[in-house]
Design a protein that fits this description.
- By secondary structure, this protein is α+β, with helices and mostly antiparallel strands.
- The protein has three helices and eight strands; from the N terminus they run H-H-E-E-E-E-H-E-E-E-E.
- The strands form two sheets. Strands 1-2-6-7-8-5 form a six-stranded antiparallel β-sheet. A two-stranded antiparallel ribbon has the order 3-4.
- Strand 3 (50-51) and strand 4 (55-56) form a beta hairpin.
Amino acid sequence: MSSPAIITPAALQQALAELFAPWVQALDLRVEAADAEGVRLRLPLTPALVRQGDTLCGQAMMAAADTAMVLALMQHFGGFRPCTTVQMNSSFLRPLSAQDARVHARVLRAGKALAFGEIEIAGSKDGKSACRASTTYALL
């Protein structure tokens, strides 16, 4: 059995426009890379996502992490497969301010009914990790 074809970053960017709710699209996520190591997105730091202290809000990071994992699952399976988040555990390591966020999602294991993944969110300028999350998805 051959492995699924790698989906291009452009195709994943198009999926963001076609498959996700308008409020997710408003995050303006940008697919920067997609390969065997997972999917990497940029979450631009915009005034709408900044909270007190000029830091990126955690809610935006979690939405970006969840979205990135759906794209990583698309990458893993070679196309969109309906799924739903069962569990997401996150640890915020430090505030992220004055820079965009880089979101790297990768699939750890995907079975018939469940998939498991991990996401790291780091500063785009300093590369320092700001958040880590582990996820479980039900494959529908």
